[in-house]
Amino acid sequence: MIQLFDLSKKFGPNVALNDIRLRIRQGEFVFVTGPSGAGKTTLLRLIFGAEKPASGYILINAVNLNRISRPKLDLLRRKIGFVFQDFKLLPRKTVFENVAIALEVIGLRPKFVRKKTHQTLRLVGLAEKEKSYPLSLSGGEQQRVAIARAIVKDPLILLADEPTGNLDPQLTMEIMELFKSIHRKGTTVVVATHSQELLEATDCRTILLNRGKISEDTP
Amino acid sequence: MNIRKNLSVHILSLGTIVASLLILGAFLLLFGNLNNWLQRWGTALSMSIYLKDGISEYRRDKVYSFIRGLPEAEIKRFISKEEALKDLRAALGEDAGFLNRLVRNPLPASYEIVFESKGTHGVEPERIKGELEKLDGVEEVQYSNEWLNKLEGFLNVVRLIGFIIGGLLCLCVVFIVTNTIKLTIYSRKDEIEILKLVGATDWFVKTPFLIEGTIQGISGGVLAVLMLFSGYLILPTKGVSLLGLTPLDFVFLPAGYLVLILILGAVLGVIGSFIAIGRFFAV
After folding, report:
1. Using a CB-CB distance cutoff of 8 angstroms, which residues of chain B are in contact with residue A92?
2. Between the N and C ends of chain B, which has fewer C-beta atoms within 10 Å?
3. pTM value?
4. B36-39 contacts, C-beta under 8 A, 24 or more apart
């Protein structure tokens, strides 16, 4: 479960998030939407522990991120998959290596890492491209590598920041199906998007952010 | 893998490590050999026993017998008064003219003796000198201890300078490794960030850099030892004459010292990497 209490975040004089109170249950599928600069990315990064709040606190499965030690945060991140808006792929590593790295850092056996990585790449439709380097791929393919890396470890929580931003409508729907299949396994999924098409095609809970505040929360 | 990616930086760093360890090794080689040479030279302790003028044959035989009874002492030469004057005349060369004006020969006759082989440890020159000077007919006894002390003093200064230079070179190596690893870390900043974001522990990220620093240090040590050995083979190292004293035959560093250079390289590499990653990962 993700719980946010009176959460605020500032970047210098700019208020990115202001007094956010939010509860996302285990296994829920939530969209976070809003115009650019509304605070969607910041919200996801705070939940991931990549940013520290100015005030308030975040509980992830009852663990307070304000008080978590560095090693425990590393362990927590192993249970959270994050699809970054800018993909954050390693240009000098192949598609396979980029995905496998999420399992290697956990210290899993190489045989299992290979098997699971192949499986996940097949799932996102990139089995043929596993030896390619990210820069030789299209934007959509890079995005799918980033998604594969986030889901390869079967995370408890999946955070995705504009995961369909570079995809055509057909691929967008395929990726959404992928997220739904992960969600069906019990993963909590939080997707930040400003894609109206995506929101209209789903009946999931939608949180609308505006100027750093929750202006609407549609169950 | 990091080393391949930042080859030029690593070659530069490795070169500096090699140079530093090479200087250190060369110093050890030089100092070790000088020390050995000094000890060997010290073992050939020489002593001059000056006899009183007009000493009787009987007294001289007594002194001779006493010397023969000294362990490890070898009489190199008996120098009569006449021979002493002749030696002096030869040593003075053109300036020897004033010796003609001497009414009598002021130089004493003497025995030149040498204590060989087992080193100065078994011989007590001061005690022997005392005993000899007690004998009737012996005027004075001198031995090469003064020179030995001076040389030992000189070697102590060399040792001190060596420690200071060695320490500075070690600092230099640490500084270089630190900066090379830092450059590598900066060049892989994005990768490190991503690793951290997917849940890598600090040590998962740090360990490759520590290994890299260690490899650099050990490689530097190996290259330095090889270059030192090549230099030893190429340069003249046999029968090197110093201050006209016993010729010095350079021997290469013993295995223990070579291992020490490699360990030192590795340790300095690890310290350098530790400093680099410590600064980078400090949050």
Report:
1. 5, 191
2. C
3. 0.66
4. B36/B251, B37/B242, B37/B246, B37/B248, B38/B148, B38/B151, B38/B152, B38/B155, B39/B119
H-helix or E-strand spanning residue A83 = strand A80-83
Q: How far apart are CA A16 and CA A28, in angstroms?
A: 25
Nearest CA in chain A to B204: A105
Nearest CA to B156 among B33, B37, B31?
A: B31
**Domain ranges for chain B:** 2-40+149-281, 45-143
Contact B254, B228 (CB under 8 A): no
CATH topology of domain A2-79+155-218: Rossmann fold (3.40.50)
Domain boundaries, chain A: 2-79+155-218, 93-153
Listed residue (A135, A139, A138, A182) closest to A160, CA to CA: A182
Of B197, B200, B283, the CB nearest to A88: B197
B45-143: CATH architecture: 2-Layer Sandwich (3.30)
Nearest by CB: B200 against A74, A76, A149: A74
The rounded average pLDDT for each run of 10 residues, N- to C-terminus, in chain B (283 residues) is 66 84 87 76 75 88 88 84 87 80 87 68 73 89 72 79 85 84 82 86 87 90 93 80 65 88 90 81 45
For residue A82, the cross-strand partners are: A159
